Amino acid sequence: xxxxxxxxxxxxxxxxxxxxxxxxxxxxxxxxxxxxxxxxxxxxxxxxxxxxxxxxxxxxxxxxxxxxxxxxxxxxxxxxxxxxxxxxxxxxxxxxxxxxxxxxxxxxxxxxxxxxxxxxxxxxxxxxxxxxxxxxxxxxxxxxxxxxxxxxxxxxxxxxxxxxxxxxxxxxxxxxxxxxxxxxxxxxxxxxxxxxxxxxxxxxxxxxxxxxxxxxxxxxxxxxxxxxxxxxxxxxxxxxxxxxxxxxxxxxxxxxxxxxxxxxxxxxxxxxxxxxxxxxxxxxxxxxxxxxxxxxxxxxxxxxxxxxxxxxxxxxxxxxxxxxxxxxxxxxxxxxxxxxxxxxxxxxxxxxxxxxxxxxxxxxxxxxxxxxxxxxxxxxxxxxxxxxxxxxxxxxxxxxxxxxxxxxxxxxxxxxxxxxxxxxxxxxxxxxxxxxxxxxxxxxxxxxxxxxxxxxxxxxxxxxxxxxxxxxxxxxxxxxxxxxxxxxxxxxxxxxxxxxxxxxxxxxxxxxxxxxxxxxxxxxxxxxxxxxxxxxxxxxxxxxxxxxxxxxxxxxxxxxxxxxxxxxxxxxxxxxxxxxxxxxxxxxxxxxxxxxxxxxxxxxxxxxxxxxxxxxxxxxxxxxxxxxxxxxxxxxxxxxxxxxxxxxxxxxxxxxx
Length: 657
Prior knowledge:
Beta-galactosidase, Chain A, domain 5; 2 domains; nine-stranded antiparallel sheet; 14 helices
């Protein structure tokens, strides 16, 4: 261990201590990057500098400022008084701001990736925020996740919903720049661990990239407008400061990474791999992208009192959680703490429509199996709700808005008669009855059998497909099977006969669009009258398509054929950017709605649990095949990008939302 204390007698002489870690990244046919941290000592103190070989790539955002602390009455350029290099971590100590003690450390995770952790300890109660950014030494163009940033611009991945006047299209808190075929970036942690305060600024004139934990804005009331949510109020006071109490320590992580790149797609994929390597979501690119999505959509539950955390569906939707999306993101993140917190965020006005009560009961089973108690009042109300809207085993969802026949399934704009039972909901209803039985509610085996019989009755034998509902037999429903797949993943029980699922899939593959299955279509696969081929109006939704193919696996279809179809659909989803979308157009193939969209995260978990139930062990061949197309490989337990090996890349750019 070596320790350097700042010596004021050094004058202008800078003392450089190289971090003992040297990070080497080599890619086939690409530049090699040797990324390292050095501690630079000057009369003002010690700061960090990032190098690629001998060339500096990032330096202090301000001269002699390891970071910037902003408080209501002051701004402090923080330098450090000591460094300690031990156990692969370089720690800078002795940083000070009024009433705050500050320490930062740099740790090598893998070649091309360094984790930076800043610890702030309060000597008294304070408001503050940190600017954890850097000054770029190189002159290459700046990039955010969604594209090049040629002009000075600010974003807020944390405060990007309808609660705020200026909404943000940024989900990924990343800022970086490109020099030739190399990219150097900085990633902020999930906004959920920064009290939802995450701010980016690309200052082209000063060549600085800022990632801040606040913006210093004053306290005010924020709320989601009532016309954007039909169920309840979301309202709180909020400001742009971190709040810390005397004796408390708060931690803030960022990641510094490098990667060879040849396109914006490569920059986006390299960003995913860096965060996934930092978080341990790194068995494949598929896992990386999907679990990152859950992680980045985690938020503090600041507008409601029920829990500490929730999952938002996308940056444009605001700090609220839909039950189904929260469920699937919890499955994707696979973190017991956030899983139970997100479930606790659910309240009754969120479960008394569509299939939300069914999701809640299944979710309760999983949380309780993990040893966490659930709210018995909401649980009882969810159970009473599904039984009150059950007729002869069929779940008949009520209207949420009295004058409209919509908001009855996840694909909420599709209309169903008041006495109709959508097949999408019925699969979840069967699973919910199994969950209720496990949770101790008076559900009999006969009750479950009636629900399963009702589900099977929705099959159109003449057309060879599951209809969208009991009454709309002329319409194919591609959201009809994912409730069964979830039921199998959680309870190990198949609901439909093998021949129904196999025939439905064979029909679906025959009639699907060139870009995937239409969530609703005519029997021949054509769009319904007035439908656009996007969103719920005949768009293709990956979780629906993906679950359909998994159901084929469950019902004995050839695994190689299933994986071939899944790989084809994954290539359609990822054709424009390495992100899963709300839906893709079945006319153009282009994404519609939010990128890094919420519920797709659950596919990773659903695939894993299905394979486990079927006794399929070892590496997932689907993940390996997709990695090869994306130019991703795994070395020493971490994912690396090899752009020259990639075959899946867009032919034209697409705007992200």
